[in-house]
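Q:
Got a chain?
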Amino acid sequence: MLTKLNCLLLLLTCVASTAQNNDKDWENLLDKDLTNWDIFIGVPHTSLDLEGHEKGDGMHGTPIGLNNDPLNVFSTSQENGETVLNVSGKIYGGLSTKKEYENYHLVFDIKWGTKKYEPRLNDKRDSGVLYHAQEPHGQFWNVWMRAPEMQVQETDCGDFFPLAGVSMDIKASKKNENGKEFWFYDPKGEMRTFKTGGDGRCRRMANFEKAHGKWTRLELICINDKAYHIVNEKVVMVLENAKEYTKEGIAKSLTKGKIQFQSEACEVYYKNIKIKNISKLPENIKKQL
């Protein structure tokens, strides 16, 4: 006959076993040698002291190219036994997975550094994560791939940008911010297509980031052609009908691709970058919808 203590121990064992099995579902994408990633470095700004490479405004000109990172824009360090991705921001660049992913849950932590560089010395600290990214490199500003972007920017984490010929449909409403009107994600708003060109940006529902210098957890869930942008466990945007467009303007569904982390003129750190395959939304996300 089971005692109350034995029942409690059995329950704890089952919980621990479930947690362990769940942990096994996650693939750790970050190691000290960045073995899961390719690096693409864009056009150096004229303000940089870098010999042997054509310089420009950071966007126009000849990129340094694939797996050639002379200033170590992307590197790693160890912090309390954890591997941390250091993004210097000195040159626009992209750290992209070697593999393509489809139907997944991506989790990572982000913290801002202090340094900023041209051409964004007077702008917010900025980075971003591109998903369903399509080669070749350099389709946007001679550095990044064609992709939807989950924005990683001070106070704007979770915004949407369509890069180099993609679109997604988002329920949105216009709101006034600092005397100007912008599109914001609104679950009760009308469905609108946000496409490359014109006003393609849609802002997150609200700011749930932690203060500068603290780690913020971001999550990206992609199931078929839908995506969910999540900041500190809060769903800040739901996106549908991901599409990419040919030069002739013909649209096709976009459901898989590479994942690319941006270097965009500021110092930023990432850790706990992990991913797992899923077929349905986690319960804590479903409850918010």
In short: The longest strand covers residues 104-116. The chain is about 10% helix and 45% strand. Confidence is low (pLDDT under 50) at residues 7-21. The longest helix spans residues 4-25.
